Amino acid sequence: MTLKHGKGAFGALILMVLTAIIVPFILWGEHFDAVLSLEGARQWMENYGHWAWAAGMGLLMSDIILPIPSTVIMSALGWMYGWWLGGLIAAGGSFLSGLLAYGLCRWLGRGAARWIAGEEGLRRGELLFARKGGWLVALSRWAPVLPEAVACLAGMMRMRWSTFVLALACGSLPLGFAFAAIGHLGHASPGWAIALSALLPLLFWAWAGRKWGGKTGPVT
């Protein structure tokens, strides 16, 4: 069985990736939100003793397949370890989650992407990520659902590895530290952190992408 590939084939691929990520949130999101509240997340991680930080990073990495409330986990890490160490752990978990999604979809998802989007759709996607991939990856980290979707698509489109890693760091660092600071300071509203973690990736990538981004084309 083959799919008919038209101009909207790459759009169909995006829709299918988003659907695969959103469905678990619809099915189990409410349960995970109840279990992994700020207090619940801290208690769950503390069950692992000295390895609580690794448990937290594991939760953040599992966000690619499970509806994990990642910003709550980051805040709980800040509550447990303080804004500096907690921020490093939270940013590291977000960063590794992006690497995992990119790697799995680069090496295992390329065939499915070709089947859904066709060669023309792949070319369109590769061109998009060659031109705008750094911005898409850096800015997507603060938004719900988009981090996993963009990282998966970047892998499928074989976005240049070095550019992806740099952009991923530009997005993950401010996100991790901002929400760890919320947990450490005991702030109930994450509004300012969302604004900060959305603005800083843009500024970081505008500087780092120009300085070290180099070539941004796909590597086949």
- So how many helices? 8
Counted up, domains total 1
- What is the average per-residue confidence, as pLDDT, rounded to a whole number? 85
Shape type:
globular
What's the end-to-end separation, in Å?
Answer: 26 Å
Radius of gyration: 18 Å
Helix content: over 70%
Multimer state = single chain
Share of residues in strands:
under 5%
Q: Low-confidence parts, pLDDT < 50 over ≥5 residues? A: none
Overall structural class, as computed from helix and strand content, comes to mainly alpha
Tell me how many strands there are: 0
SSE ordering: HHHHHHHH
| Main sheet specs | none
Written account of the structure:
The chain is an all-alpha fold. The chain has one domain (10-212). It has helices spanning 9-35, 38-46, 52-61, 70-108, 110-140, 146-156, 161-185, 191-212.
Spell out the key features of this protein.
single chain; 220 residues; mainly alpha; 8 helices; globular
In short:
With about 220 residues, this protein is mostly helical. It has eight helices and no strands. The protein has one domain.
Tell me the layout of helices and strands.
Elements: H1 9-35, H2 38-46, H3 52-61, H4 70-108, H5 110-140, H6 146-156, H7 161-185, H8 191-212
Helix pairs in contact: 1-5, 1-6, 2-3, 2-4, 3-4, 4-6, 4-7, 5-6, 5-7, 5-8, 7-8
